[in-house]
Amino acid sequence: MSGSLLPSFAEKHIKLLEEKLAGSINDLQAPPVLKESMLYSLMAGGKRIRPLLLFATLDAFNQETEKGLHTAAA
């Protein structure tokens, strides 16, 4: 993966990850104020390097991103 591909790779995979995170929180049976607080914390950014490394590893082995989505969201 060349340096010019990294931003588009990261953007695509972070979007997938954030959709998964938001969906997981929305599926919880919890008070709305708690879910709102959890989403605020999760979507504040940062802490995305490990999921990106997982996605890059999957890509290197020609595996689908979805195989690691649950693990990346953890």
Walk me through this protein's architecture:
By secondary structure, the protein is an all-alpha fold. 66% of the residues lie in helices and 0% in strands. The chain contains 4 helices and no strands. Helix 1 packs antiparallel against helix 2. The longest helix is centred in the N-terminal third of the chain and has 21 residues. The protein is elongated, with a radius of gyration of 14 Å. The model has no long low-confidence stretch (mean pLDDT 91).
Strand content: under 5%
The averaged pLDDT comes out at: 91
Number of helices: 4
Q: What is the distance, rounded to the nearest whole angstrom, between the alpha carbons of the first and last residues?
A: 25 Å
Largest sheet: none
Key attributes of the depicted protein:
4 helices; 74 residues; elongated
Question: What is the fold's blueprint, element by element?
Answer:
Elements: H1 6-26, H2 32-42, H3 49-60, H4 69-73
Report a brief summary of the structure.
With 74 residues, the protein is mostly helical. The chain is built from four helices and no strands. The longest helix is centred in the N-terminal third of the chain and has 21 residues, at 6-26.
